[in-house]
Write the structure tokens for this entry.
Amino acid sequence: MANSQLLLSFAAAVLAALLSAALTWALRPLLLRIALAKPNARSSHRIPTPQGAGIAVIMATLITTVAVIVFAGAAEMKIPVAVFAATLFIGAVGIADDVKSIPVLPRLLLQGLAVAAVILAAPENLRIVPACPLWLERGLLILAGLWFVNLVNFMDGLDLMTVAEIVPITGALVLLGWLGGLPASTTVAAAALFGAMLGFAPFNRPVAKIFLGDVGSLPIGLLVGWCLLQLAWHQQVAAALLLPLYYLADATVTLFRRIARGEPFWAAHRSHFYQRATDNSFSVSRVVGEVFALNILLAALAIGSVMTSSTAIAILLFVAGGIATAFLMHRFSRQRPSAG
């Protein structure tokens, strides 16, 4: 079964990559006319660039996942209808926000509805902390999911940044699924998203020809959050935290710093560590390359935490990931001589 699951995942990745690339190429002329992102004070780009390639990435991911699951025909390979419906819904919210900005409160309420649909649709026996009341755990998960969706959106501010984050995460999820740490349907969905991001990558490399837009970053955050939640529900909490640790740390530390300084934390800004790095003479390629290298390390640590039977070792691996993440954030926040 493990070998067949790996084969299905490989097929999903290849099919999604081809479909994502084809759709991105086909949509770009239309998005040039209706969804052009113009540079502003918080932008990292300097010329008007179309956004909305997330339509291609998400459609490739969902179509491929459904096709592979239906083709496999296995009883345990059920299509997660609530997850896919919520992904389409939050993607629609992203399209609306890309075309005409939605006020903060309605946007958060709509996003929260999508996150709640995913979490509340899960069976009640899926628990992270069984001693915690179900209503409290699910409520906290909805809040955490809402934050995760938004932080993926916040961190999508540099060419190839989301590719450098999501590709290692989803690649690790596929390997963990092969090792038995994830349901088969989750593994296939992760493989499809892995392939879809690779198909999008050539169009987003510096200088980007097209951006994901909110229509991409929001549903990608929802899908990846759901995959990570599957790990946590299977009592692999260290792995679920290690895989997205750079995004979690950069976005969360930045949020608390802005709150401490009395800034309007809901407003757009350029104070994330990866943004400060480009202001401190790091090239875009250097920033993205170092984030990608860190994420490969975090993925290896996460896989190690799943393979070990020792809680102490899993904690040590998490601490090691935390130290590596803190080191990179510290590097990004320091001025350096200009380099290529």
About this structure: The two ends are 47 Å apart (CA to CA). Residues 2-34 form the longest helix (33 residues). The CA atoms of residues 250 and 273 lie 6 Å apart.
